[in-house]
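Design request, tokens follow.
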């Protein structure tokens, strides 16, 4: 009977050891996943920040380009009027 009890206790000890090993591996994997998640969040925040900066910069450039286009359009319109005036003068 004592021998059976001893064997039973040994089996229980082995199972507890396996559980402890499994718990340690689980904690290790949780820590790794936490690090991955943290680094991913940091990368997303950095990328978002860069995209916001890029968008702002591009917006400023587009406003500048649109302003230049309006000036060119105005100048072109004025030149077309002058050309039309000169053509009329030449016809008369």
């Amino acid at each position: 009977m004592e021998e059976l009890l001893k064997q039973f206790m040994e089996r229980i000890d082995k199972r507890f050891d396996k559980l402890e090993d499994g718990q340690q591996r689980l904690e290790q994997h949780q820590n790794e996943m936490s690090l991955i998640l943290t680094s991913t969040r940091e990368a997303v925040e950095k990328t978002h920040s860069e995209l916001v900066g890029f968008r702002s910069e591009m917006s400023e450039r587009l406003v500048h380009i649109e302003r230049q286009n309006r000036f060119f359009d105005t100048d072109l319109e004025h030149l077309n009027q002058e050309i039309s005036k000169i053509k009329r003068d030449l016809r008369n």
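Comment from the thread starter after seeing the answer: thanks! The chain has a mean pLDDT of 91.
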